[in-house]
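ugh ok fine here u go
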Amino acid sequence: MRLTIFTTPILSPLLKRFSIWVLRLSGWTLVGQMPSDTPKSVVIAAPHTSNWDLPYTLMVAFALDLNIHWMGKIQIFRFPFQGLMRWLGGIAVDRSQSTNMVSASAQALRDADGELHLVVPPEGTRSQSRQWKTGFYYIALQAQVPIVLGFLDFGSKTSGLGPALLPTGDLEADMASIKAFYAPFQGKNASQFVIE
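structure:
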């Protein structure tokens, strides 16, 4: 995989210290950790209701020693920001085209040398979304990696990692378990996070 903010020598350890300091100073509590036997995973990023979710996610990843890549809409990868967004670990997703993003992402996870955690917001938008996208599920299923339940709960100022679930292939049952975990959480814009 390419060089990112998480793998940049010298800068990465400094940003880890900075992230821990900022999170503590702003009253956030971190919980959970990546299981030691999980070098690769798909991490759900929810609730996703604000532009602030990205900087908090990056700081939490640094604080928890995670090497992440994240999916974002292609519009934020346009000039002059595309280089910065890719360096921050971003992968552009063009939602207007039918692409083979699931298969390509699963293959990238399988082929990656070392640790790699792909962060995917299942809502697919910061706006209110009643229907979660299922791409994250099928990426994990095809790559045969766990789905880790990452969260930012602005209500309690708690963030971190919940359980890791290996997808069974029964989408409906697995999604019911995943959504039950997220039901108590509150996004920055609380009215935009709806679990159904």
